[in-house]
Amino acid sequence: MSHLDKSRLIDLPKYHDPRGNLSVIESGQHVPFDIKRVYYLYDVPGGSSRAGHGHLELQQFFIAMSGSFDVIVDDGYNRKRVHLNRSYYGLYVPGMMWREVENFSSGGVCLVLASTHYDPSDYYFDYDEFVQAAHKHHPT
């Protein structure tokens, strides 16, 4: 399994009810990490991109709470695009992965669960620097 394959869709429990559906997310049970931070992206203008950076340790779980968007993940060797458009599944992204979020639909809301508190030293903003680090962490 390549490092890129560790980034995967995870189904969340979905409880049907005539009054509306309910989904649950629990640390270490539905996502493979303890949740330390939650944030969300909204009112993103059409055609705009978010993220565009890599992380050393941070693990994330992306969910389309409303509308849709694409998450592009890149392990420094390969990349894949995942379209998210339902609130009962999400995309798990492990550490040492570059990510971009784009193609937001009108009214799209991206919820992100994170494994660590904000730490500026965990970020890679330069793609070439990220690729060099990724090749050291995950040589072919």
From TrEMBL:
Pfam families the UniProt entry points to: FdtA
InterPro entries in UniProt: QdtA_cupin_dom (IPR008894), RmlC-like_jellyroll (IPR014710), RmlC_Cupin_sf (IPR011051)
Sugar 3,4-ketoisomerase QdtA cupin domain mapped to chain residues: 6-133
Source domain of life: Bacteria
Protein name: WxcM-like, C-terminal
Native source species: Duganella sacchari
